[in-house]
Each structure stands twice: as structure tokens, then as C-alpha cells.
From TrEMBL:
This is Nucleotidyltransferase. It comes from Flavobacterium orientale. InterPro entries: NT_sf (IPR043519), RlaP (IPR018775). The lineage of its organism: Bacteria, Pseudomonadati, Bacteroidota, Flavobacteriia, Flavobacteriales. Signal peptide: none annotated. It comes from the Bacteria.
């Protein structure tokens, strides 16, 4: 599948007149709890030629595609990506730390990862994860629940808890997050992961009160501890340097 993904990215470069700098897997296949029919969530950062950035007019800064082979692609322009890094955008940080990398310009990625540590804003990322967890709470309390919903809620709840307890960006791999949960939750989650790995995305699972109660407790914990978190450093000059440096490759 990696070869097909790289072929699609080469096609994007040809048809859109861009250069892909970095491409990774996001979503359940990167997080470690994919179902057999899960899409490939390809996320990438690309750059245009210099004329694009010198235009007076606002230009499109996102490229998206969906193929019959379940390749779900979404890419962000270089300038958009660097500006989002300044805001400690959690989805972008997840791309930078994805365990599944399809392609990378090492110079660019190393610079972005180094600056990501200083730009990291615990409060901004916690609010992102807290909001996402809350979005899944209603469906997680139904009598039958898609396992996908349980795992999305658990991942973001634990990511928020990680930020509070470690003051660092949480691991993208779900199994690296799981040890901060109580042992009973860890055991139940591993049981559910085995089921999810053998069921399609539409499978409905009976409500797990243990999981639901833990989610509610963790949301409350994350909310109560949010006010004590700090924000990231302002890195405008350094990020400008990354952007300008990538332009010199033309």
C-alpha cells in the first residue's frame, strides 16, 4: 500500500504543481486501533513555487483527495503549516510525531520538530483534546456504541490527561498513552482492541459502563486542571526562518 500512496502523492505533485515535503498516516492506522476496513488517512505538507507566495490574492492552501482504494488524503501548504505550528495546532503536531511516515524531507521535518517543542502550548492542546472527547460523550453513553467512538474518546481523554501530568505533547501511538489509565481500563481496552481489529467500522458493541465512567471522570479531571497549564513560546522569527529556508530549495 505504501507504493500506491507514494504514487498518488507523485500524481498530486504533477497535477497541482507542488512539492510534497512530508507525508504520514493519521487516524486509526497511526493510532494503532484500525479496523479491517479502515481508510488510509494520508496527511501531508507541501510547498508551491515562489510565485504562489508572492501573489496579491488569497490562494487555496489545502489539497484533498479520495480514491477508490480508500486513500483519504488531506494536505496543507507550507505557509499554512508553519503558521499552525506557531499556534501549537494539535493535529499538525500529531502529523509531525506520527509513527507511520511515508515520505519526509529530513531538513524540513527536523526543523519543524525542533521548533514544535518550543511552540508547544499545553493549554491549547488540552482544549483541543478536551473538546474532541466531549463531542463523543453522548454516543459513548448509548446502549450500543461503535468501538471507533470509544477509542476516539479514550485517546483524546488520555491525551489531555498526559498533558496535565507530563507537560509534554502526548504520544500518537495509543498503546503508549494507555499506561496512564488504571489497570482495569487497560485490560478492558486491550480486549476491545482485539474485537475492533476483527470487526468492520459499523460494528456496534454493548455499552461498557467501566469505559463510560472512566471517560466522564477523565473529562472532569482534565477540566479541573486546565487552568494551571501554560502556553508555548512565541517563535515568529524562527518560524519565518524555516519558511524562508524552504523557499531557497527552488
Amino acid at each position: 500500500m505504501k507504493d500506491k500512496i507514494l504514487e498518488k502523492l507523485k500524481e498530486i505533485e504533477r497535477t497541482k504543481g507542488v512539492e510534497v515535503l512530508y507525508a504520514v498516516e493519521s487516524g486509526s492506522r497511526a493510532w494503532g486501533f484500525a479496523s479491517p476496513d479502515s481508510d488510509y488517512d494520508i496527511r501531508f505538507i507541501y510547498k508551491h513555487d515562489l510565485d504562489y507566495y508572492l501573489s496579491l490574492w488569497e490562494q487555496p492552501d489545502v489539497i484533498e483527495f479520495m480514491t477508490e482504494e480508500d486513500l483519504d488524503g488531506s494536505g496543507w501548504d507550507l505557509r499554512k503549516s508553519v503558521k499552525l505550528l506557531a499556534k501549537s495546532n494539535a493535529p499538525l503536531l500529531e502529523w509531525l510525531y506520527s509513527p507511520v511516515v511515508y515520505f519526509e524531507n529530513e531538513v524540513f521535518v527536523n526543523q519543524m520538530r525542533a521548533l514544535a517543542k518550543d511552540c508547544f502550548s499545553p493549554i491549547a492542546c488540552l482544549h483541543h483534546y478536551l473538546g474532541t472527547t466531549k463531542n463523543f460523550m453522548d454516543v459513548c453513553q448509548a446502549e450500543e456504541v461503535k468501538l471507533k467512538s470509544y477509542f476516539y474518546a479514550l485517546r483524546t481523554a488520555l491525551a489531555g490527561k498526559w498533558i496535565i501530568e507530563n507537560n509534554s505533547f502526548p504520544p500518537v501511538d495509543f498503546l503508549e498513552l494507555l499506561p496512564i489509565a488504571p489497570l482495569a481500563i487497560q485490560e478492558k481496552v486491550k480486549e476491545l482492541m482485539t474485537i475492533k481489529a476483527n470487526q468492520d467500522e459499523n460494528y456496534l458493541h454493548p455499552k461498557e459502563v467501566l469505559i463510560t465512567d472512566f471517560l466522564m471522570e477523565t473529562v472532569q479531571f482534565n477540566q479541573e486542571n486546565a487552568s494551571g497549564l501554560g502556553s508555548g513560546k512565541k517563535m515568529s522569527e524562527e518560524l519565518d526562518g524555516v519558511f524562508r529556508g524552504m523557499m531557497k530549495y527552488y
